[in-house]
Design goal:
This protein is of the alpha/beta class and 216 residues long. It contains 7 helices and 7 strands. The protein has a single domain, classed as Rossmann fold, CATH 3.40.50. 39% of the residues lie in helices and 20% in strands.
């Protein structure tokens, strides 16, 4: 993957296209396909993802999530805040499975969504730990803290503060309003950040955050 390649249009991928683009193994593709099936099945009874996004799963969900690994290829311990349907955390866990010391903490405050995460983790034998808790209450030392569609940056940084203070780097998937969110967040927080292009959507950005502190 080339994280600095800004796409004019998002790719329209199927499993074969995703594999060609990312180099995922056959076993990883099989796990990702099984996860897609679980999302579709559970989405019938629970609001996990937008129903129309199942059709574009390989771009909208798989690629959107897995691109984070190219930005932190040596990171083994991750925390996905507001994990919800498991994006990006379950996708990351699928791709990290089999690497010694790998673990993804899926942090979700809604018990019914934790149940889905438990089912997915068991079905796919994933290296995850599921926390039915509010993100800011946990004291986890991890390499990377991430989130997608969790909260505006001001609030999200509050959720991520304990992880960043313990040495984690933040990699947050954001949409086209990210510049305004960062401007607002700087009223409450001081932090170093970089905006990185998204492989899955030319309007999207990945916000890399380090050295977080509250504005006094």
């Amino acid at each position: 993957m080339q994280p600095d390649a800004l796409l004019a249009e998002p790719p329209v991928l199927d499993a074969a296209g995703y594999q060609a683009l990312t180099g995922a193994s056959d076993a990883q593709i099989a796990d990702l396909a099984r996860y897609r099936d679980l999302l579709a099945e559970w989405n019938e009874v629970m609001n996990l993802v937008g129903p129309l996004t199942i059709a574009t799963y390989w771009t909208r969900h798989a690629l959107d999530s897995s691109q984070l690994l190219a930005l932190a290829p040596d990171a083994l311990t991750w925390a996905d805040l507001g994990a919800g349907a498991g994006l990006p955390g379950v996708v990351l866990a699928i791709l990290l499975k089999g690497r010694e010391g790998a673990k993804v903490h899926l942090v979700e405050s809604m018990a019914k969504r934790c149940r889905f995460l438990e089912v997915a983790a068991q079905a796919l034998d994933l290296p995850v730990e599921i926390h039915n808790a509010r993100a800011e209450t946990l004291k986890l030392k991890i390499d990377i803290v991430t989130a997608r569609a969790c909260a505006p940056m001001t609030k999200l940084l509050g959720f991520a503060e304990p992880y960043l203070h313990r040495g984690a780097t933040g990699l947050f998937l954001k949409g086209q309003d990210v510049a305004a969110e960062l401007t607002e967040a700087r009223k409450a927080w001081s932090f170093a950040s970089d905006l990185l292009p998204s492989q899955s959507d030319p309007r999207g950005r990945i916000v890399q955050v380090k050295r977080l502190s509250r504005v006094r």
